[in-house]
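Lab notebook, design round three. We kept the backbone fixed and only want residue identities now. Task for the bench partner: fill in a sequence for the structure below.
Input structure tokens:
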């Protein structure tokens, strides 16, 4: 929402926006956690763990019941036989990331998938062995990359290149990424960046980075943990080589649920790519003949190792049913409005201690705003929490607030900013 379009700063106005919200009914389809006094929390932590859709329990129960009633025959019998359960999920998941179904699968968890994909896509050589990532990335990604570099016998001090913002800035400029690729691209084997940085909320220019990386002969992958279900993605058209994301943040599929995984179509039939194999990645047409030699299934499925945990798939299915009802455009319309409204109200506080470090351009961010409160500590965050808000605190002084378009309201945002204002007065 453009700031000049926001007419006033009252709760009545927020309630009016809620009334006009085309997605307002979706809020009722999620459970909100409750405070001790029985009131729901204002929940802004969808970037960490999405809320539970109310019908998830039923979809999971169908699996529990099929297991109870049919045991092993649940694989092939019943309304939703487990053997084919992933097909619907993959179709819908592919739409969310702008991919073809053959390019997407759901397996393992995110960090594990990054490793499995790097087995195929990080193939260092004496001349080209470096990995380019963003600084202040999610720690798990850094651990994974450093361990891969060491595994291949290289020294992370030399082989891991970290993109840093310019001095005094918090956002990494695309032009600076392109310069690094231009100057050092010939030594870079892999570019692996978080599509949205978890700390600053910056959305990177996936298309431009991929193009430039390819121009210099690098493989380009993305960790989309904070991007999937949150921003518009076009992994196929943007020519991204591979990507992985978790399903428990903006995809509302429950704690530790399975990770999505993308491998571009141009590798779909490339059986020469080295990979770590398992029986569930074997060509399904001959899998149960139990042959001795591995024949990878076409597409992303060829990277799967094990048969899927059905309870987790059920939770993902429940979430996908919600996403299926909406276009990404509808979701993003509300998202831009809601986050723009949050930004507007925070700026209206005119509090000198507050700095929003997330880019102000809606095209360079998702729903999350990272709010730096200078001179504050975690006590401020605890105070906000005790007033009924679940957000997220990152040392040393950043509060991350993610109003998600599926279940947050304009009134949520308004109330949070009032609470922030009050707590700052006392801080
Ligand atoms: C949430 C998140 C993870 C979590 O990894 P898991 O393997 O699912 O525990 C990893 N990387 C990024 C960038 C994340 O945001």
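Proposed sequence:
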């Amino acid at each position: 929402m453009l700031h000049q379009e926001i007419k006033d700063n009252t709760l009545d106005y927020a309630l009016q926006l809620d009334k006009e919200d085309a997605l307002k009914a979706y809020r009722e389809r999620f459970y909100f956690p409750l405070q001790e006094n029985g009131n729901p929390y204002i929940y802004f932590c969808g970037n960490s763990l999405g809320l539970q859709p109310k019908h998830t329990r039923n979809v999971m129960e169908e699996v529990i019941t099929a297991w109870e009633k049919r045991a092993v025959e649940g694989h092939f019998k019943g309304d939703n036989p487990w053997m084919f359960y992933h097909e619907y999920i993959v179709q819908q998941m592919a739409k969310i990331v702008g991919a073809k179904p053959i390019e997407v699968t759901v397996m393992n968890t995110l960090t594990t998938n990054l490793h499995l994909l790097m087995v195929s896509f990080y193939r260092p050589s004496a001349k080209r062995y470096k990995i380019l990532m963003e600084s202040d990335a999610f720690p798990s990604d850094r651990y994974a990359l450093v361990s891969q570099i060491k595994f291949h016998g290289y020294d992370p001090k030399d082989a891991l290149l970290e993109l840093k913002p310019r001095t005094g800035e918090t956002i990494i400029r695309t032009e600076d990424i392109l310069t690094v690729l231009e100057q050092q691209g010939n030594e870079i084997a892999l570019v692996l960046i978080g599509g949205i940085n978890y700390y600053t909320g910056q959305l990177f220019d996936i298309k431009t980075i991929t193009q430039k990386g390819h121009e210099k002969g690098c493989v380009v992958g993305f960790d989309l943990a904070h991007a999937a279900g949150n921003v518009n993605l076009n992994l196929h058209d943007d020519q991204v080589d591979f990507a992985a994301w978790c399903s428990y943040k903006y995809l509302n599929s429950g704690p530790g649920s399975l990770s999505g995984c993308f491998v571009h179509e141009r590798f779909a039939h490339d059986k020469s790519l080295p990979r770590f194999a398992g029986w569930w990645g074997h060509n399904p047409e001959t899998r149960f003949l139990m042959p001795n030699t591995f024949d990878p299934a076409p597409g992303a499925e060829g990277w799967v190792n094990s048969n899927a945990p059905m309870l987790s798939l059920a939770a993902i299915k429940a979430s996908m049913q919600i996403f299926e009802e909406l276009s990404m455009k509808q979701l993003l319309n509300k998202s831009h409005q809601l986050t723009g409204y949050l930004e507007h109200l925070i700026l209206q506080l005119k509090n000198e201690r507050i700095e929003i470090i997330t880019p102000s351009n809606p095209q360079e961010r998702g729903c999350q705003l990272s709010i730096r409160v200078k001179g504050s500590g975690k006590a401020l965050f605890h105070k906000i929490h005790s007033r009924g808000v679940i957000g997220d605190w990152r040392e040393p002084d950043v509060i991350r607030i993610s109003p998600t378009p599926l279940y947050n309201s304009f009134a949520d945002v308004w109330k949070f900013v009032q609470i922030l204002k009050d707590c700052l007065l006392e801080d």
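Keep this in mind before ordering anything: Residues 109-111, 138, 140-141, 194, 198, 223, 225-226, 246 surround pyridoxal-5'-phosphate (CB under 6 Å).
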